[in-house]
């Protein structure tokens, strides 16, 4: 099997266990020759150049060279072989590209066999090998799309229904002249050059090796269900069965890693969607003493281990552990460093692919090994070695900390711009609030602050001061401001339908994403007029559209005489600070004090308090408190009619997007008046009086709408000089 990469080609040879220690490889003029099994004679090197030492010094068996291909005339359709009773095995399926675009397909068997070759389609040839078996590890396609050749793909497969008959399908780029030649145990098919050039790599559409290996499991089942003609003519759809010797799925190194979904299997969660920014296993830290960057250490429970590596399927039997690490390096693309004393054998078999980093952890546990990250390198060592290094590191750290105690003290003045210096000092720099001891150096360091200058004064060693500056830099950020724009509008009761606001009934409590006070449901409320001075049923909703459109609608409303814009205040406030908007009038009333009559004034106001808080995702959480006063019925008191005051109040929290508009409505005032006119005396006659009088009743409904639009205003961050 071979696997192509942008910078290399990897070849995997499957053999029996007894041959794993008896092989050798020699470079030749056309490539590399590999010999498997104990042999007596070494190959003769034809080149006069310096011979490179073999991979393993075991004398290979001398092999007969492949006979030179010569054009021959077509032979008869069925070529008889020598008398052999036992079936032959296919031991070779090769492709040889020659000059000028010519090529040869080589099929080798353990002894000569009879064959039959047919043209199944315009670009498809089928070769039947009678009394021949095909090993499972040979049942895989040989793709030649990128070669200067008429052959695109060679697919050997075995149909169990035909018993001892193997089939080799040849897919052609175009039909070209060809000849077939049999020399003992070799079958040679020679093809002339094709006029169609090979496809570029981007357009070749080669199947991924993961897909090819996944198809292997159903090879025999589908082959048995198809007739011979259909089996050969649908080579693209014919799955290839996998080898039981060693399964190593090597998918593309880069493509699709970040687009994979997250799945959960048992107690182990595989996260395959890129690096989680909050996953501590992917975070790095810089040691303040050594300046070395390394992954953050922590305790992780076995049931919560997260693996994000590419999935692979492996099958090893007493394989050297260093070879396993080499395979993991190829799959993961990571850098590995293996200590000299790392030894061991690995035996494992995975029917289903698992992440490579989970395989790595499993192999380490099986051999009492450990790993540590040194930059972008994964170092593998014995646990004893890592423990000794950790102990040595702690001793060096202890010595470093002792040396810090002897360093000279320096004093710095750190100005704080946007937060309280006292809060920063007490909560983040001091050992205890109210004490001046530094939390970084309790014995020698001191931290104080100046309220007038809003400045932190710190006396400590340089390393502690550096860490304090980093904390202050993270906390001392520009406080965002929020522009609160309000529009207070008094409208007729039918105005709300003109701007698309639908008010319903108030039937229960209203739940917001965080905390809500008040008795509201959704964004609906009902106007319930009564003969009294007024009622309140406050509701909150959102108006679609920009504030500019809203302004145009309200202006047109006032022109038609259906409503009146009472005020349009704007106020700018800091994040977390309360802004108040108040509008109204003073109502006069009489007061008697010791016989003296005095005119006093009562504030009748509409008050709106908004406390905005900007969230990290640039939304605005608003705490809203609204109060509406009104003049009620007059009551007699000490000879004077004194008006009663009606107070309406509501409080809630809302989370809105930046520059969105919300509406507060349901503040309704209903005035009812009655009149009775007619002829004096006659209008009071029973039964007939209605002929001489006229009764009238007038009801006026007014509703108060409040539009609120928050807008975040972010100022530029400025850095100050630390003295």
What would you note in describing this structure?
This protein has 723 residues and is mostly beta strands. It has 9 helices and 39 strands. The strands form 12 sheets. Strands 30, 31, 32, 33, 38 and 39 form a 6-stranded antiparallel β-sheet that branches. Strands 9-5-6-14-13 form a 5-stranded mixed β-sheet, with no helix packed on it. A 5-stranded antiparallel β-sheet has the order 7-8-12-11-10. A hairpin with a 4-residue loop joins strand 35 and strand 36. The longest helix has 22 residues. About 23% of the residues have low confidence.
Please tell me what the overall shape is: elongated
Cα-atom Rg, whole angstroms? 45 Å
Structural class: mainly beta
Count of DSSP strands: 39
Concise summary:
With 723 residues, the chain is mainly β.
Q: What are the defining features of this structure?
A:
elongated; mainly beta; Immunoglobulin-like; Phage tail protein beta-alpha-beta fold; 5-stranded mixed beta sheet; 9 helices; 723 residues; 6-stranded antiparallel beta sheet; 5 domains
